């Protein structure tokens, strides 16, 4: 529940179901797979200060402005973000604390692990609350006589990093004027180059640790070691984040697919100026913990992390080597379709962008919808259905997917059909139970968005 009373206004869109989960702090719950994953990553950054208790309610300023997000950045949309009120929200990423932690200036390196909140799709890898870890390392140029001496120190630190025999594809230059610029006003090419190299090597080391553990767990479960067939392989992809430049994403070749694992880059210098540490230079990254934990333990559905069922929780032991999760039961799925005509006034529906890594910002989750002022039915966005489904069916909804979308050639009206798959993790849903949930969701679409069921 909310620790304090916050005034609400026309921006408020946090549903009670989210508030009910607020404060579960799975990432520090002993023997929880998210906590084990967090500790495994933290162990690769010795000497870093680990912040695991930062509260999830932050200001719009902390979450967006302090990081240099533009005023029209799509992440600010009420379709994508849970607002407590116009100025206050549930953090959408751990980066929201970067400036504050830099300002406190208590360590060169830090991690921040925490729960983060996003309105998003309903499926087995998306949940409106998930966990991220932020990491950053900086060097203070004022500790050195010359800028070159600082570069030399970073170089020495780089050379001391653990070596690995990972196959690394990194085809792009360290920075590129149009695609991935050096912060020319603030960094020399040598500075950006060595910070980037230190960043990449550090994160490659982390990935080796994670994927070696995952591979051992697979082999121990008799599911075949990937490493025996082909060596572990990663690639660096150019990216964009408001708070870093140059920026990259790291992808890992895992069981036949490139998997996006994290976002990172050379910290935006104006951000460090805003944090009153203008002489510090360095790198930062952000990683989604669920995705890593799912792959480490072989957890098939993101809802399981929230389970209080001993059959789930008893399978994890932080003192022991990582073992694959054993599914304890699989109850039958109950799919139901809902088709409806949108009201004429509805602007084009914006669908969610396909499953981005949970660490990555959902680039253009939706159109910017201001609260409706004229009392008209609110405009329908796909995430509204996601939320109605979660609020009504809780963790008994597994997946919501658009399966049909067409415009009537004569009337110009638009019809959508969604398939909602109900499945409980704990029991078999009866036909009546699934029907009742579906009926409530359908009726709510009618009453909240003025759609016409078909
Ligand atoms: N905050 C980003 C997100 O949630 C992830 C991220 C990217 C964090 C780059 C960083 C970074 O610190 O440098 O999508």
From TrEMBL:
<dbReference type="GO" id="GO:0005524">
    <property type="term" value="F:ATP binding"/>
</dbReference>
<dbReference type="InterPro" id="IPR036690">
    <property type="entry name" value="Fdx_antiC-bd_sf"/>
</dbReference>
<dbReference type="Pfam" id="PF03147">
    <property type="entry name" value="FDX-ACB"/>
</dbReference>
<dbReference type="GO" id="GO:0000049">
    <property type="term" value="F:tRNA binding"/>
</dbReference>
<comment type="similarity">
    <text>Belongs to the class-II aminoacyl-tRNA synthetase family.</text>
</comment>
<dbReference type="InterPro" id="IPR005121">
    <property type="entry name" value="Fdx_antiC-bd"/>
</dbReference>
<keyword id="KW-0067">ATP-binding</keyword>
<dbReference type="InterPro" id="IPR002319">
    <property type="entry name" value="Phenylalanyl-tRNA_Synthase"/>
</dbReference>
<dbReference type="GO" id="GO:0005759">
    <property type="term" value="C:mitochondrial matrix"/>
</dbReference>
<keyword id="KW-0496">Mitochondrion</keyword>
<dbReference type="GO" id="GO:0004826">
    <property type="term" value="F:phenylalanine-tRNA ligase activity"/>
</dbReference>
<dbReference type="InterPro" id="IPR004530">
    <property type="entry name" value="Phe-tRNA-synth_IIc_mito"/>
</dbReference>
<keyword id="KW-0809">Transit peptide</keyword>
<dbReference type="InterPro" id="IPR006195">
    <property type="entry name" value="aa-tRNA-synth_II"/>
</dbReference>
<keyword id="KW-0030">Aminoacyl-tRNA synthetase</keyword>
<protein>
    <recommendedName>
        <fullName>Phenylalanine--tRNA ligase, mitochondrial</fullName>
        <ecNumber>6.1.1.20</ecNumber>
    </recommendedName>
</protein>
<keyword id="KW-0436">Ligase</keyword>
<feature type="domain" description="Aminoacyl-transfer RNA synthetases class-II family profile">
    <location>
        <begin position="114"/>
        <end position="321"/>
    </location>
</feature>
<feature type="region of interest" description="Disordered">
    <location>
        <begin position="352"/>
        <end position="374"/>
    </location>
</feature>
<keyword id="KW-0648">Protein biosynthesis</keyword>
<comment type="function">
    <text>Is responsible for the charging of tRNA(Phe) with phenylalanine in mitochondrial translation.</text>
</comment>
<feature type="domain" description="FDX-ACB">
    <location>
        <begin position="329"/>
        <end position="454"/>
    </location>
</feature>
<feature type="compositionally biased region" description="Low complexity">
    <location>
        <begin position="352"/>
        <end position="364"/>
    </location>
</feature>
<dbReference type="InterPro" id="IPR045864">
    <property type="entry name" value="aa-tRNA-synth_II/BPL/LPL"/>
</dbReference>
<dbReference type="Pfam" id="PF01409">
    <property type="entry name" value="tRNA-synt_2d"/>
</dbReference>
<dbReference type="GO" id="GO:0006432">
    <property type="term" value="P:phenylalanyl-tRNA aminoacylation"/>
</dbReference>
<keyword id="KW-0547">Nucleotide-binding</keyword>
């Amino acid at each position: 529940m909310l620790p304090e009373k916050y005034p609400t206004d026309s921006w408020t869109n946090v549903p009670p179901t989210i508030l009910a989960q607020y404060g579960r702090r799975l990432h520090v719950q002993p023997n929880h797979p998210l906590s084990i994953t967090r500790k495994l990553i933290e162990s690769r950054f010795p000497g870093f200060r680990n912040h695991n208790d930062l509260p999830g309610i932050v200001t719009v300023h902390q979450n967006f402005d302090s990081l240099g997000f533009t005023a029209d950045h799509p992440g600010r949309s009420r379709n994508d973000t849970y607002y407590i009120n116009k100025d206050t929200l549930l953090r959408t990423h751990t980066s929201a604390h970067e400036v504050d932690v830099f300002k406190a200036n208590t360590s060169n390196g830090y991690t921040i692990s925490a729960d983060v909140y996003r309105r998003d799709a309903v499926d087995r890898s998306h949940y409106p609350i998930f966990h991220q870890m932020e990491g950053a390392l900086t060097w203070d140029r004022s500790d050195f006589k010359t800028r070159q001496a600082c570069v030399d120190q970073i170089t020495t630190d780089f050379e001391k990093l653990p070596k690995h025999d990972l196959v690394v594809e990194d085809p792009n230059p360290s920075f590129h004027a149009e695609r991935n610029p050096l912060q020319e006003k603030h960094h020399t090419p040598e500075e950006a180059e060595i910070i980037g190299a230190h960043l990449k090597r550090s994160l490659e080391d982390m990935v080796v640790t994670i994927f070696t553990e995952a591979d051992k767990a697979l082999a121990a479960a008799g599911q075949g070691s990937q490493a025996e067939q082909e060596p572990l392989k990663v690639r660096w992809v150019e990216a964009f984040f408001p708070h870093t430049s140059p920026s990259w994403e790291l992808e890992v070749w895992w069981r036949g697919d490139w998997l996006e694992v994290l976002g990172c880059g050379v910290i935006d210098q104006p951000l460090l100026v805003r944090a009153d540490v203008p002489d510090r230079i360095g790198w930062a990254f952000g990683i989604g913990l669920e995705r890593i934990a799912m792959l480490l333990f072989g957890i098939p559905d993101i809802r399981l992390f929230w389970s209080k069922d001993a059959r789930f929780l008893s399978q994890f032991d932080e003192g022991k080597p990582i073992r694959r999760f054993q599914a304890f039961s699989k109850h039958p799925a109950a799919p139901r379709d809902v088709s409806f005509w949108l009201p004429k006034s509805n602007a084009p529906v914006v669908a969610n962008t396909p499953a981005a890594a949970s660490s990555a910002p959902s680039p253009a989750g939706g159109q910017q919808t201001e609260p409706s002022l004229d009392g008209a039915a609110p405009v329908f966005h796909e995430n509204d259905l996601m939320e109605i489904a979660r609020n009504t069916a809780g963790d008994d909804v597994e997946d919501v997917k658009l399966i049909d979308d067409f415009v009537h050639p004569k009337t110009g009206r638009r019809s959508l059909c969604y398939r909602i798959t109900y499945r409980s993790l704990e029991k078999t849903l009866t036909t009546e139970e699934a029907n009742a949930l579906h009926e409530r969701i359908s009726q709510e679409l009618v009453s909240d968005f003025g759609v016409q069921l078909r």
